[in-house]
Amino acid sequence: MTSPTVLVKNMVCHRCVLSVEAILQTTGIPYHTVTFGEIHLVNALTPEQSQLLTAKLREVGFELIDNHMSGLIEKIKQLVILKARNEGDHKDIKINLSAYLTGKLHYEYTHLSSVFSSVEGRTIENYFIEQRIEKAKELLIYGQMTLSEIAFELDYSSPAHLSTQFKKTTGLTPSYFKEVGLAKRKALDKV
């Protein structure tokens, strides 16, 4: 028997997982594990637990997802973030985005794309590009890698391709962005 799973919107990093685990511990809601966007519970939530968890999650910028479409979109976002930032399985790096999402979510890509676009008002590909550019911004600000190394790290075909996409997305060249720094960064859940 599988444990009940609750989906959570806006969980995009390890600190998010730690934050949700802390909420579960302080509220006394028993759980097995917390992963990006998911809480695997010991038992189904009672209405009182659900109401308490919803309130506590909202205080820190998270939301419980209560319908299938929202859950699917959140899973798409989580997978896109992992792929864009090259933080998933290394075997997934060279797989194209559509095959990656289809393999992970077991839906045709046309369905995933249609659902995502209808709710988000942008394509999965645009979201993917924006996530890659946010990671590039992060790496540029750290100043420990060259543009060539960042392009390689993010699986761009060349530094020129990264630079072109960076300028198209941000309106700035990577070198100018590096000068202006943090003022132009966005939180992952705001992309």
Summarize the structure.
This protein has 191 residues and is of the alpha+beta class. The chain has helices at residues 14-27, 47-59, 68-84, 97-105, 109-120, 124-142, 147-153, 159-170, 174-180; strands at 5-9, 31-35, 38-41, 63-65.
Strand and helix layout:
Layout: E1 5-9, H1 14-27, E2 31-35, E3 38-41, H2 47-59, E4 63-65, H3 68-84, H4 97-105, H5 109-120, H6 124-142, H7 147-153, H8 159-170, H9 174-180
Helix pairs in contact: 1-2, 3-4, 3-5, 3-6, 6-8, 7-8
Explain the overall architecture.
- This protein is of the alpha+beta class.
- The protein has helices at residues 14-27, 47-59, 68-84, 97-105, 109-120, 124-142, 147-153, 159-170, 174-180; strands spanning 5-9, 31-35, 38-41, 63-65.
- It folds into 2 domains: 5-66, Alpha-Beta Plaits, CATH 3.30.70; 69-191, Arc Repressor Mutant, subunit A (Orthogonal Bundle).
- The protein has 9 helices and 4 strands.
- It has a 4-stranded antiparallel sheet.
- α6 (124-142) crosses α8 (159-170) and α7 crosses α8 (159-170).
- The protein is globular and about 55 Å long.
- The termini are far apart.
- N- to C-terminal distance: 37 Å
Bulk shape: globular
Strand percentage lies at: 5-15%
Output the CATH topology of the largest domain: Arc Repressor Mutant, subunit A
- Which second-level CATH architecture of the largest domain applies? Orthogonal Bundle
Count of distinct strands: 4
| Major sheet | 4 strands, antiparallel
Mean pLDDT, to the nearest integer, reads: 88
Q: What oligomeric assembly is this protein in?
A: single chain
Q: What's the arrangement of strands in the largest beta sheet?
A: 2-3-1-4
What is the count of structural domains? 2
CATH class of the largest domain: Mainly Alpha
